[in-house]
Design goal:
The chain is built from 15 helices and 10 strands. It is α/β, with parallel strands linked by helices. The protein has a 7-stranded mixed sheet, with no helix packed on it. α10 packs across α11 and α11 crosses α12. The chain starts with 16 loop residues before the first helix and ends with a helix. About 10% of the residues have low confidence.
Length: about 400
């Protein structure tokens, strides 16, 4: 007669806690969600915040803030506020409530869609700085890239109402991250000292005093007056911006970053080993390179890994930069100058230009090339739209 073998099953609940923790930490997200539904013991273990650091907490309504108080989300790293419904509650105290809750979760490193939320200037400055300086990515941006023109008047009242609604919806998509002067100064001070930021984009901030508010009766030297226009001192601006690995500085619809601030940034990069590695300077109001000493620019740019700018710099400045690139000990791996004045390029030492191209490839684009690229992109979009329709 054959022997019968009985197999006994061991319930997962009898496993030592140490073994259970090891099993749980290797579960992928979807299986982790299922595991906490198996039994009370697994649910209690599964509520540990360290098992949910991968989760993205979506905040669509004010009630969703309660989710951020769940034990499992106390080490969450990413929060998403990009859902359109956020536009309703965040107009009313909602953003302040959001910051208050996030301020209690020190592990948050990314907030998707934060730059489109209104009302940050009304939040207590220390709380704003605490949250923003803990992030890894921050778009400190306000407004559209370009100002829209005035809309034509419609005779039909219904069309007017529809147009107003569409315009209001478009306005909601403007970047709204405009800090008060106090918030901005405190944030830059904190970033200059120590920050988690790896990426920083600055655009549309009031770092330039309103000249209409200055006393016109005071007779002061023009340069002294310019120095006093900075609400954020050039030294503080430079120390903060250079303490972030990747930085984009944009001026689209007003002059909000001064020549002094740009120069201070180049100076600190040239003489100190700062964390910044990728720098983009785009301004349509002033030359970001201005009258800065060519050798200073050469030292600064060649200590970066990537530098991008648009239609700026003199022949003397670019000669020094390119010479430092091809003849010196340069860290630069990528250089791009968009909309460059072709006369500047033509007046450079062409041998120097060829050597730079050999190292980088085409490192500049003239206005015609940029226009052709934009037309090509628009043609591609039209083709895609036509094929889809």
């Amino acid at each position: 007669m054959g022997q019968s073998h009985s197999q006994s099953q061991t319930h997962i609940s009898v496993l030592p806690n140490e073994v259970m923790f090891i099993i749980l930490q290797y579960l992928p997200p979807q299986e982790m969600k299922s595991a906490v539904l198996v039994c009370k013991a697994l649910r209690e273990m599964g509520e540990k915040p360290r098992f949910w650091t991968w989760a993205v907490a979506t905040v669509n309504t004010k009630d969703d803030l309660l989710k951020l108080k769940l034990p499992r989300l106390q080490m969450v790293q990413e929060i998403d506020v990009t859902h359109p419904s956020r536009l309703v509650w965040m107009k009313r105290e909602g953003l302040a409530d959001l910051f208050q809750v996030i301020g209690e979760i020190p592990t948050v490193r990314r907030i998707r869609g934060l730059e489109f939320c209104k009302g940050i200037e009304g939040i207590e400055p220390d709380l704003v700085v605490s949250v923003l300086n803990s992030l890894e990515e921050l778009k400190l941006c306000y407004g559209f890239a370009e100002e829209d023109g005035e809309e034509d008047e419609e005779e039909d009242d219904e069309e007017d109402e529809e147009e107003d609604e569409e315009k209001e919806q478009e306005m909601e998509q403007e970047m709204q991250m405009k800090l008060s002067t106090e918030q901005l100064e405190l944030l830059f001070t904190a970033v200059a000292e120590k920050t988690n930021l790896k990426f920083l984009q600055v655009s549309g901030q009031d770092m330039l005093k309103d000249m209409d508010k200055t006393d016109e009766t005071d007779e002061v030297d023009e340069m002294d007056q310019m120095d006093e226009m900075d609400t954020i001192s050039p030294e503080l601006f430079a120390a903060a911006v250079s303490n972030v690995e990747e930085v984009i500085l944009k001026e689209h619809f007003k002059e909000d970053i001064t020549s002094k601030q740009f120069e201070a940034l180049y100076s600190i990069i040239a003489v100190e080993d700062r964390p910044v590695r990728k720098l983009t300077c785009l301004s349509f109001y002033i030359d970001p390179m201005g009258d800065v000493d060519p050798e200073l620019l050469s030292k600064a740019f060649n200590r970066l890994e990537e530098f991008t700018t648009v239609n700026c710099g003199s022949g003397e400045q670019w000669t020094a930069i390119l010479r430092g690139l091809v003849e010196g000990d340069s860290r630069l791996k990528k250089l791009m100058v968009e909309d460059i004045n072709l006369e500047v390029v033509q007046n450079l030492d062409q041998n120097l230009v060829r050597r730079a191209k050999k190292k980088f490839g085409q490192f500049y684009q003239d206005p015609c090339t940029v226009l052709e690229n934009r037309r090509y992109l628009l043609d591609c979009i039209d083709i895609i739209d036509t094929s889809e329709s």
